[in-house]
Structures are given as C-alpha cells and as structure tokens.
What we know:
The structure is a homodimer. Chain A is of the alpha/beta class. Chain A has two domains: about 10-315, Bira Bifunctional Protein, Domain 2 (BirA Bifunctional Protein, domain 2, 2-Layer Sandwich); about 330-415, Anticodon-binding domain (Rossmann fold, 3-Layer(aba) Sandwich). The first copy, chain A, has helices spanning about 25-40, 55, 60-65, 85-95, 140-155, 170-180, 185-195, 200-210, 215-225, 230-240, 285-290, 305-315, 340-350, 365-375, 410-415; strands spanning about 10, 20, 45, 50, 70, 80, 105-110, 110-115, 125-135, 165-170, 250, 265-270, 280-285, 300-305, 330, 355-360, 380-385, 390-395, 405. In chain A, the strands form four sheets. In chain A, strands 3, 7, 8, 9, 10, 11, 12, 13 and 14 form a nine-stranded mixed beta sheet that branches. In chain A, strands 16-15-17-18-19 form a five-stranded mixed beta sheet, with helices on both faces. A three-stranded antiparallel beta sheet of chain A has the order 4-6-5. In chain A, β18 and β19 form a beta hairpin. In chain A, α5 (about 140-155) packs across α10. Chain A starts with 9 loop residues before the first strand and ends with a helix. The model of chain A has no long low-confidence stretch (mean pLDDT about 95). At the A-B interface, β1, α1, β3, β4 and β5 of A face β1, α1, β3, β4 and β5 of B.
Amino acid sequence: MERLPGFRDFYPEPLPQPDLWSADARQYIFEHWRATARSYGFREYDGPPLEALELFTLKSGSEIIGQLYNFSDKGKREISLRPEMTPTLARMVAAHERNYKKPIKWFALPQLFRYERQQKGRLREHFQLNADIIGEKDPAADAELIALLIDTLRSFGLTESDFVIRLSSRSAWQEFFLQHKGEPAREYEFYQAVDKLEREEPAVTEQKLADLGLSLAQVRAFIEAGKPTVELQSILDNLSARGLEAYLKIDYGVIRGLAYYTGPVFEAFDRKGEFRAIAGGGRYDNLIALLSGGKVNLPALGFGMGDVVLLELLKERQKLPRFESGIDGVCVIEDESLRADSLKLIQTLRGAGLAIDYSLTPAKPDKQFKRAQELGASFVVRLERRETGELVVKARDLGTRQEDVMSLVDAPARLKRR
Amino acid sequence: MERLPGFRDFYPEPLPQPDLWSADARQYIFEHWRATARSYGFREYDGPPLEALELFTLKSGSEIIGQLYNFSDKGKREISLRPEMTPTLARMVAAHERNYKKPIKWFALPQLFRYERQQKGRLREHFQLNADIIGEKDPAADAELIALLIDTLRSFGLTESDFVIRLSSRSAWQEFFLQHKGEPAREYEFYQAVDKLEREEPAVTEQKLADLGLSLAQVRAFIEAGKPTVELQSILDNLSARGLEAYLKIDYGVIRGLAYYTGPVFEAFDRKGEFRAIAGGGRYDNLIALLSGGKVNLPALGFGMGDVVLLELLKERQKLPRFESGIDGVCVIEDESLRADSLKLIQTLRGAGLAIDYSLTPAKPDKQFKRAQELGASFVVRLERRETGELVVKARDLGTRQEDVMSLVDAPARLKRR
Lengths: 418, 418
C-alpha cells in the first residue's frame, strides 16, 4: 500500500533515508513560525482544509483555478481542498469582525493543496505560515508585516547575506499600465505577463506586451529605474527605523501572480537566487468586500511562507540543528526485582516534566546503557538496594560520566536542575 | 459565503460568541498532548490527510466504511480523507521499520474526517492525539500506553474523580465466544453486538445474540464477573506500581467497534458518565501484517483521544485557563516625533523574545494604555526625551502600577527578567 503521489509522510529523526521528510524539522519550523508571530502580537486562527469550491473560484484568477484539488462530495456538493488561506481568512473575518478590535493581526499554519500534473519532486501539498493584518490602510501595517517576515527568517539564523525582500507595488504597475494607455479591462492580463517576465522567453513576453500595446523595453526601463512610490518610501523608512533596511530592495520585477493584490507586494528570495521564492504577499484591500458580498469592507494585507523552500534553504545553509530524541534520561533496570520500584521512579520523574525512557522488558544492562547513548539522553538513572534495605537512586551524567547518589525523594528536583 | 457543514473555524480568544471554537483552546490541548507524549519518549510523525481508499476499506470493519469521506480525484483515483490514523501509521511503519529500534513509540496529532448524514452538532472532522507502540508483545507495552493516556488527561488537571479507564480484552471475549460454541466466522458480528450493548434496546441485542447462539444473560454475567485475565492482571499490576491503580477498572462492557483489535482494549470515560468516550484504544497485533501484505509482521497497540469530548469535559470541569493575548508589553507612543525610535525599541524587545504590540498609527495615549489593559499586557513602555536630549525608557508594571526608568541598552534584559 503506497501513499498518494505528491503527498508526504513525516518520520522522526534520525531519518532512515535522506529522501524522507522529517517530522522533527517540520515541528522546528512550526515552533519558530508561531513564536515569531506571537512576539509581534499576531493571534492564531484556523479554518477547515475543505471549503465550498466557489470560495476559491470567485476571485483568485486563472492561475489557481486550473490547479484546484476539487471534487464532488457524496452530497453532490462542489468542494475543494484549500489551495491558499486568504479566502478562508476573509470569510472568517467577514463573519465576526465586528467583535475584534482593528487592526486584526492573525496568523495560521495551514496545509495547502493543489492538483498539478504529477512531476518528479512536485508536491501536491505544503504547509505555510500565513500572517495577515486587517483593517489598516496605513503603510505602517505593510512595514509591520514585512518586519515579521524578516524576523521569522532571522529566527532560523538566516541573515541579510542569506535572503532579501524584493518590494514592489501593484498600484505602481497599475499607474504605469494606465499611463501607457493600457485597457483597464486587461489589467490582470498585463500583471500576468510581468509576473512571468523572469521565467519566460523574452520573445513570448514581448508578444504578450505588444498585444496589450506595450513594449518589453518600456517594462524593463520601469523595473530598472526602480523608483519607490511615496507609499513604498514610507515602508522603507519604517523598516530602516527598525534597523532592517539591509534586508530590502525595491524591485518592480515582482508583481505576484494572484489577481486580488491592490497595493504593495513583496517576495523573499535567497540572495544567491538558487531557490524559488521563500515567501510572498501584499495588500488585497478589496478582497474582503468581494468575498462578503459587500457586507464587510476592510483593507487587508498578508503573506505566506511555505515549508518546502524554507527547509531546502535551511539545509543548504546548514541552519538546521541536529534533532535528537528529546529524551532527558533513561532508567536502567539492572535487577528485575526492582522493576516495580523503577516504574514508580519513572512515573515521578515524568511527572516532574522530565522525558524518561526505559526498556519495557528485561534486557542486559549494557544494552540499556547503549540505548541511552543512542537516544542522546543526558543521564541514566538506576535504583540500587542498600544492605539496610533502603532504595537509592544512582544518576550518571552521560557527558561527564560523573555518578551521583540521591534519595528517591530528592531525585526529581535534582535531576530537573541539571 | 459559508463554511461547509460539520467543519469548524477556530478563532482567537476572547471569542465573540460562546458557540465559536477557540484556536487558543485547541493549541492549549495540542501543547499538552505533545508535552506528555514526549515525556514518555514518544516521537512525533505525520502522514497525508488523504490516502488511497483501499487503505481504509481493507480492514476497518463495516462501521467505518459507511462513514468514509471518500471521492474520486481528477485522475479518477479513488481516495479518502483519513477517518483514523492507524492505517497510515501501519503503512509508514511497514515501509521503514527496519531502520527504527523496537519498540517504536510514536505519536501524531492528525485531523480526521468522516462523512456522516448531517445532524445538529455532529462534526465531520476532529483532531486526535494518536499514540502507538509497535514491536512489543509484552503487556508492559499496554501498561506504558495506558499510563500515557492517564498522564495526558492528568496534565489538564483532571483527576481520578474526573475520569476512569475501562479496561477490557478482545481475546477474553474471543475465548468467551468460542467456549459458548460461537461460529468463528461470525466473531466480529458478536463483538459488534457487545459493543452496542450500552446504546441499544436490550431486546435488539438479545435478538442479535440469540442469532449467534448466545443469550444476553450469559453476556451480562461475563461482564458482571469482570474477572481479569492473566494479561489484564499484569497490566493492572504494572499500573499499580506507578501509583495509577485508582484510574482503572476491569470492565468487559467495553470491546471497541473496529474490527482489527486483538488483545487488551480500553476506553477512558468521565466518572459522571455525562460524555461520550474521551479516548479509546487497544492491541492490533495483526494489522501491520495485513496492510503490508505480509511483508512486515509486528505486534502493535495504540489509542486515540479526540479534541471535542476532551474540550467539553475540560469546560464542564472548569479546567481551562483564561486565554489572554499572550502579549508581554505594549509600547505607547505619546509623541509622534519618537515613533522611529519607538520602532527601534520594539524591534529590540521582540528580538529579546518579548511579545510586544503597539498602535500602528497615531492614537491618543489614554487609548493606547486602555488597549494595553484589554490585551492583558503586563507592562507598558514608552520613550521620553530628557532635556539633555538623551532618550530613556519608562516601563510601567500594569499590576503594581510601579514605573521604572531605564536606558535603551538595559531595557530588553530588565523587562525580560520581570
């Protein structure tokens, strides 16, 4: 029985094969995502992994629709696994925003799905950190969100020599398009062409642009000039005040594929340009009104950071720690007549918050010691009965090899303090 | 746009309506599940939320098959959202068990799905703690697993007066069935009848049993005698050594609905009997061989604990903490000319691991103070420019109302130490 193509199993470390996915690395990434978002005052939310199909087809643009993992359920309802989190967020905010103070600062760690033609190494699911600010028009919100993005990546030990945020503006591109007499109805078509600029043959882009009444040279000149708008300058100044200016550059080569962006947009890339985008996001001031049928109208912005590219980058830059078993100590049972008392000791140590393992069945003491070392435990404990009949705990530090003798009563606190 | 029936949105606290689901309570439950499993030396794993349909139809018995959330994907593949984790675990273990030391002790926190006829309050998804031990036949493994179940519930502040583990044995029931001349081929039918005993009209069960050549009186007498098998006695003794005997009772009224159990089975219930089972599990020694086509043959056992009943119980017993914003401090910006310097301070404090919030746009100081209180922050900080031009940090403890003045350099360490 095989798993479905494009899906991942996550195994505990050490991994038996280098091509398996690590549950420990995933959890390590999740913990850093959560901790950084919380330090910025973002609150966690989540929605269902399945939504009504029309939640996603209503606004996301053609790129995402072709890749939806959608199907009919047993009740003939058209549903889809979520390809992105923003529509769910917009739906949730529209339903209950009245009771939350603005700006709303929320984050989620959703698993997202797409149904792509199966290609080697192409996944049909990944996890994302999604962080959004809702109810604030001021570019101070864009700066706050970008600072969170930067600090999230810094929390993994990545620095300004590892990554850069390419900051752009959908509204600057809109202005460019209209100034060059672009047809307003074909605006999104134009954004799509610019979005593909770096990945397509110049001749293909040239043709698309010509069809829209523009030239590749005009587009390239606009990107090259890279003149920040007033809004982008305000974001730059804000991030400079935080000391984060080295992580940013204005780069109109970025425009984002999704249809719903309206203002500043940005993507995080590794400096060497070896990987796909690490994260991307921007303003989508009209989306909540659209998805709530005009009921709620709130400006909003957000970004998503996937686990796959991030993990590749952390591996390549050797920023991942070595993942151990997480075991603090192993209880060695040398004398089977002391098993019941050892179980009691184990119970007490675990109750004190220590992670303790032991051999469920009788085993040679040297095998038990060896197992403790394999697990990366920092100590072993074992019970010993004195000639007086009294039980004592012998604890050996597996680093220093030093052995301490302590009473059963003292053991939890003393081992905890180590 | 509505969410699909039977699915949940999770909102940050404080909840605007009492009937909404709390993302904070969910995370609180997840953290306790993880911490306790780790203290027992269990390692985290995960698989895909979707699997090939036959992974679930191969062995789970009729009860689960009718409730599968299955469909055909765009490639005409028959797939299903996972209704339980055990088949995925068995698949993963069968693929790579050679490289993991036995016994394997693994846990996961999967979201599980079922497609039931929509009823008021009946959910189509829930989360579970799944913990399993693979590769150990000895009842010491059953005891270790049940101890983990007990300590997981205790980690929430629940005690022996709140819940009890009803311990039973599929093999004891098998022996009973064969001794009473039951037809081996109809064994599972018999287990199903016993499983429904507490929920069905006696006349219905009586009829089912008669059809199998047994009487309700015989079954009731067996349950009432409640004589532990050698295996169950060994589990009881092991748990007594840990001091956990008060959490257990032998109760053959429990048998578990799934087809694949083979030995000891158990369920956790609230003592008052107000809720459905909090958790359930048991031995399934033949399942891995079945699902791996005989390739791998390992004894195994596990339990699942759902988030929905647990949350109801914790609420009813008032064991949930009050969930705050998680914000440590709020930076109040009284003087807009100090905004850039305040952003620098906020960046430094967050970098030191403090959760800091502030007003993204100019706001009256008293409004900013009020917001700090609403957020449950423990302090506010603000910058003040001395006549000498020097900037100092004023930090007010929102509990004691005491205000301390400190330098920008000292602020992170001093506020962190509070």
